Amino acid sequence: MKLLFKQRFFSWFDSYDVYYEDGTVAYTVKGELSWGHCLRIYDSRGACVGTVQEKVLTFLPKFEMYEGERYVGMVCRKWSFLRPKYRIECCGWNVEGDFLQWDYTLVGTSGVVARVWKEILNWTDTYVLDVADPADALRVLMFTLAVDAEKCSKN
Known about the structure:
Protein name: Tubby C 2 family protein
Strand order of the largest sheet: 8-7-6-5-4-3-2-1-12-11-10-9
InterPro entries: LOR, LOR_sf, Tubby-like_C
CATH superfamily: LURP1-related
Distance between the termini: 31 Å
Largest sheet: 12 strands, antiparallel
Shape: globular
Helix content: 10-25%
Family: Belongs to the LOR family.
Strand content: over 45%
Order of helices and strands: EEEEEEEEEEEEH
Number of domains: 1
Structural class: mainly beta
CATH architecture: Beta Barrel
Number of strands: 12
CATH topology: Porin
């Protein structure tokens, strides 16, 4: 299953639309005013299904992930010199790839969970999320939002 994740061109806070391959809306992501990034994920009916919340006052960036109100894990930036590296404290997933080029793979115990890459030559940030199991789509989206928010914070 592929999802197309596009940042909105005009918005005061981080706002994104996430589409299925056929062009229908899968999720809408809206940023909120808070200390650190707070991104709420809504399904196509407008119900809040997830949140990515940056923890403030940490040495390296950390983002908590919630499905509804339930805490499901954290994405943490690891200490590294040349390339950014991340640790996912959720689902037993690992991250492999080239974050400088915005291309990476999420790998679980049973194999590849998702491949994520950034499309270039677009007006706004645009990612493709190729998710092996549709049940993992929300968590893959939350991970991608956390990495994008961390990179935007540095710039």
